[in-house]
Model the fold of this input.
Amino acid sequence: MSKRKPNDISNTANMTINLIFWLYTAACVLPLMLVVAVSFSDETSVLVNGYHFIPETFSLSAYRFLFQDWEQLLRSFGVSVVVTVVGTIISVLIMALYAYPISRGNFPHRRFFSFFMFFTMLFNGGLIPWYLVYTQMLDLKNTLAALIVPLLVSAFFVMILRTFFSNTIPPSLIESAKIDGASEMRIFAQIVIPLSLPVLATVALFQTLNYWNDWFMSLVFITGNNHVNLQFLMYKTMLDIQFLANNTQAAQGINQAGGLVQLPTETVRMAMAVIGIGPIVFAYPFFQRFFVKGLTVGAVKG
Amino acid sequence: MGDYTSLSATRQAYRSVQSKPAFFKTVRKFWVFYLMMLPAAIVIFINNYVPMLGVVIAFKNINYSKGILSSPWIGFDNFKYLFSTEAAWIITRNTICYNVVFIVFNLVVAVAFAMMFNEMRNRFLSKFHQSAMFLPFFLSMIVVSYLVYAFLGQEHGFLNTVLFPKLGIEPIEWYSEPKYWPFILPVINIWKNIGYYTVIYMAAIIGIDHEYYEAALIDGASKWQQIRTITLPLIVPVMIVMTLLQIGRIFYADFGLFFQVTQNAGALYSSTQVIDTFVYQTFLSVGDIGMSSAAGLFQSVVGFILVLGSNLIVRRISKENALF
Done:
């Protein structure tokens, strides 16, 4: 234990705080460990004894079953990656492009365009008109665009970007660049963007998370199997294990052979969860570091 | 004198000529800005403004073969129908009550955690626990629904098959007993979001000048006195902004939490159905476009009033803490 400084808390208080946080850390980590443990368990032992933190009989059968359907898994993984990468890049770019003019004090219409963005935080048309716009007007049902476009622009992030631009980029810098003959586009690309990397990174991280974790757009707009992302595949698996069974070559093989084999439902469910959780848990330590920095930036009022 | 009047008259004439083209002049001068704003403006227009026109659906008897515009107007009938059902009362009550509980707990627990982190002597352990606490924030609601299922699953879940038998408790049918969910859902909400709020309050606490505490120490102030007279008052602005943001959204619910985590179990609706899930349910599953639109508009309008109202109250108390 580190040495006690004059204004440090007492030993008892320190111990109490430590104890509380150990318990809370356990509460955050143990559920994930339970899911991992069940996914590596043998189906029959789970059916008889329930979910345990330590597999009673170690088994890879759940994963073996899932990977027979590797085509759907790979496709869903691909959809998630493409949507996340493309969505995040376009999103950050067009939000920054919008936020920059309204951060400029000498742009006469900045108030109108700020309000145009801000008003969307106050009022919206609701789910049904929104749904009809995408399906009837734009006809984007069952396309990747339906997974990308709705999340592209968030008024909240635009406001954060605007605040950052107007607080950290000195107008005199822009003026002097102008005198040197730089165009507005060039000022934006070569002065504003490099100076705003912290806030751009923060917004990019949030958008990455939003796109990767999104399942609502799939729930609403996707009906076929081609554009199912990883989250939605997990949703469907949870809802009905038969969805996977119907799509699995293994199951087809079994059915063709005329046999009816009990699917390892409980362990397959949890194996699916592990596959879905995997990428984000590995990326998370990296993300977390930047999030904490970025939240401090983002805590600035819009 | 004569010269002066003629001059101002000329000016006025010039202005009246100029006032119309002034807009176009600005546009020509700042055309690059307009070009820059165009992509996001188009997305916002399509995604947010066009649907706003669609609120007329709530006042129409939609007939798909006729299209939205030519469907007959029926005034407030959709609303009358909606509010004559018991569902209207249940979803309104659930949405507001859950959000109030979430807001209170988010505030109290996050501020407490932030202060505890700030007092922890071991920096490494503090970082470690923060990381663990942030983990749930990164998980999607689908993943959370799996984690919850792993514990609450009726036949094989951890609680029913492992923990309860040891404690001698009878298994509970979690997914068909509404009475437990007003406790389960707040716990999950805190568990998922507390890392985020804690970091925000920690940033605010770290920003406090250390000299305050040194002075307090010299004056012999205890830890509690320091918290009460220095830390708390100085983070009040952040607390107000964070709470205000949530109050503005009090009529909206976390769709993932109420739809996924409860597995949309019909038996639980009395304590888990909120406006958002109701709108989804009545539209995409039941297909009742009128009632669903009415509920959606009800949500938007009341939400709008609540944002303006809460902002107004904060403006009265302290102007600089208001959102707008």
About this structure: Chain B touches chain A through 94 residues (CB under 8 Å). The CA atoms of residues 75 and 132 of chain B lie 53 Å apart. Residues 86-119 of chain B form the longest helix (34 residues). Chain B has a mean pLDDT of 86.
